[in-house]
Design goal:
Elements lengths: L1 H8 L5 E2 L1 E4 L3 H17 L5 E4 L30 H8 L6 H20 L4 E5 L12 E5 L2 H13 L5 E4 L3 E7 L5 E7 L5 E6 L2 E3 L8 H7 L8 E2 L10 H8 L4 E2 L5 E7 L16 E4 L13 H15 L4 E6 H7 L13 E3 L2 H8 L3 H13 L35 E13 L2 E2 L6 E3 L5 E7 L16 H18 L2
Parallel strand pairs: 1-9, 2-3, 2-10, 3-6, 10-20, 11-17
Antiparallel strand pairs: 4-5, 7-8, 8-9, 12-18, 13-17, 14-15, 15-17, 16-17, 19-20
Organism: Cyphellophora europaea (strain CBS 101466) (Phialophora europaea)
Pfam families: FAD_binding_2
Cofactor: FAD
């Protein structure tokens, strides 16, 4: 490989064994596993880790997420996730990939534990989870930032890795016969530089930070979507463009994206309002526009956010009463924002605080209350407590909003990640449009395509970490 690179450049450059683009979950896991596997095999294994962000603001969304994980009490991955993926993708999601993830996730979790990540196990007694984990999920103490910190803490113990901050990948370098042999980057001074490598991992996120690509692939009005975390501005889609220029195949829906409803008053990232199922959501005209009880909480929170962005002028309002708020607070459902909910002893007073019409909100709540059937209210199942005669009706958890004080949150949709990406095999190797692996090129994380139509949540973190881990070991063994 070094002689081939020399023939291209006219000199013998420094050649890394692996160049990793992006320092989020996938990139950091690839880097650390590659270094460790090389050490185990007695190989030098020199790595260049390239990151567009500055030291301290790195990692796209990885450092900002709460990192909820779809795991049971034994750290086993939800064995029904692949079926949910098949359902929401209408059969398009790669089932072999999903099965591989299910098999490999426990090893990934144990790896993180062995490297100092502490996990909280949560038995959920209030919210019906769509997960097949016996009402259980897991999250790291300190969220995604804690995972990134532990990975970097272990990476920096090696002296054969160079971390290049404020360095944007621009183009893949190739030999005459199409083998990837490095990355051309642009430094913070605007100058271009070639970083040569025997293998390259693309793990630099989607294209939520690129308005032109959002408009091209997702469509109009994407300019009204804010990013849910500051680091997403570095997810410019350049990794996707570089791979496509190499003839990579795509997977997942390029026109898809994942959004979440956040508190418009919040001063922190990722201030998601989860519990829309347990009240009503109205638009700026005080009209309901979505069946808040259509499915489980995690199966509907994305869709109502997309509706808020697409058709409701980026304005929606959650309204409920003390029956719900007393039940759920304190807790994760309504406490991810750093602001207290608006509160009033009357619906009209609540409307005034939310900045919407008091009379219209009162009419909507009254109409909703009078349309509810007499079935019992049961938070732990799709209870069929529904409305009749409304448009749209609410099909589950239609409990009256009648006990003051009343509570509300003003909400807007924010962009979390994009769907479409590069097609990879089960070892994270990038596949060309003819199905053959592109020599020396890997891809993992958001940049690797998988999702269509909807995102069954609490899985993206595990996917990035798992296939980054697999790629790191595979790249080291293939040297």
């Amino acid at each position: 490989m070094a002689s081939l690179i020399s023939s291209l450049t006219g000199a013998a450059p420094t050649v890394y064994d692996l160049v990793v683009v992006g320092s989020g979950f996938a990139g950091s896991m690839t880097t650390l596993n590659f270094l460790q596997e090389c050490k185990k095999l007695g190989k030098t294994g020199r790595v260049a880790l390239i990151e567009a962000g500055k030291d301290g603001e790195r990692c796209g969304a990885s450092r900002w997420t709460m990192a909820y994980l779809r795991l049971d009490k034994d750290n086993k991955f939800d064995d029904a996730w692949k079926d949910e993926m098949k359902l929401v993708s209408e059969g398009l999601a790669d089932q072999d990939y999903c099965k591989k993830m299910e098999q490999e996730v426990p090893t990934t979790v144990q790896y993180l534990i062995d490297h100092g990540v502490q996990f909280n196990h949560h038995d959920e007694k209030n919210v019906l989870l769509e997960f097949n984990t016996n009402q259980h999920f897991v999250f790291p103490e300190g969220g995604g930032h804690a995972i990134i910190n532990k990975l970097f803490e272990n990476i920096t113990k090696f002296d054969n890795v160079d971390v290049m901050w404020e360095t944007m990948a621009e183009k893949l370098l190739t030999t005459e016969d199409g083998e990837v042999c490095g990355v051309q980057v642009r430094k913070s001074d605007g100058k271009l530089k070639k970083v040569h490598g025997k293998k390259v991992m693309l793990s630099c996120g989607g294209f939520e930070g690129n308005r032109e690509m959002l408009g091209r692939y997702v469509g109009p009005r994407t300019e009204h979507l804010e990013l849910i975390a500051p680091g997403l501005k570095y997810n410019t889609g350049r990794g996707l463009q570089m791979a496509l220029e190499m003839g990579a195949a795509t997977a997942g829906s390029m026109s898809g994206m994942h959004c979440e409803l956040v508190d418009t008053r919040a001063t922190k990232p990722d201030a998601v309002i989860w519990g829309h199922n347990y009240g009503i959501v109205v638009n700026e005209h005080c009209k309901r526009f979505y069946d808040e009880g259509k499915r489980h909480l995690f199966a509907t929170f994305e869709m109502i956010a997309l509706e808020t962005w697409r058709d409701q002028n980026q304005k929606s309002y959650f309204v409920t009463d003390s029956v719900i708020m007393d039940h759920f607070r304190p807790g994760w459902v309504y406490d991810t924002t750093d602001q207290e909910p608006e509160q009033s002893d009357t619906i009209e007073g609540l409307a005034s605080k939310l900045g919407i019409d008091p009379d219209e909100l009162k009419k909507t709540v009254d109409d909703y209350n009078s349309a509810i059937n007499d079935k019992p209210f049961d938070l732990m199942k799709l209870d069929g407590k529904a409305t009749k005669g409304l448009s749209p009706n609410k099909t589950n958890w239609a409990n009256p909003i009648s006990k003051p004080p009343y509570y509300g949150y003003p909400m807007k949709a924010q962009l979390t990640f994009t769907y479409g990406g590069i097609k990879c095999d089960l070892n994270s190797r990038v596949l060309a449009t003819n199905g053959a692996p592109i020599p020396n090129l890997y891809c993992a994380g958001e940049l690797s395509g998988l999702f269509y139509n909807e995102y069954p949540p609490a899985t993206s973190v595990l996917r990035s970490l798992t296939f980054g881990r697999i790629a790191g070991k595979d790249a080291a063994q293939a040297l």
